[in-house]
Amino acid sequence: MALKKELLDILVCPLCMTHVQLTPDEKGLKCPACRRVYPINLKDNFPVMLPEEARIEDE
Ligand SMILES: [Zn+2]
Questions:
Q1: CA triplet 53, 57, 59: central angle to 5 degrees?
Q2: Ligand 1 centroid to 59 CA: how many Å?
Q3: Per-residue pLDDT reduced to its tens digit, 23-55
Q4: Which one of 3.90.320.10, 2.20.25.10, 3.40.50.1580, 3.30.110.70 gives the CATH number of domain 5-56?
Q5: What is the Å distance from ligand 1's center to 32 Cα?
Q6: 31 in Cβ contact with 18 (< 8 Å)
């Protein structure tokens, strides 16, 4: 897995402060509360936690 678990544990959605979860394809972080998916910068393996970069996933 690309991202360290310790990093995942502290990452929260900047909009609603909910802990985000790694998407199944490990290319994004999903907020279960507002359903935004934040992309992971694959070059740096670092999540981009900007609301304007996030897409909203319908379920
Ligand atoms: Zn959120």
A1: 170
A2: 15
A3: 999 899 999 999 999 999 878 888 889 999 999
A4: 2.20.25.10
A5: 7
A6: yes
Q: How far, in Å, from the CA of 28 to the mean position of ligand 1? A: 13
CA of 34 to the centre of ligand 1 (A): 4
| Residue 7 CA, ligand 1 centroid: distance in Å | 17
Integer Cα distance of 23 and 57 in angstroms: 11
Q: What is the pLDDT of residues 2-29, one digit of tens each?
A: 678 888 899 999 999 999 999 999 899 9
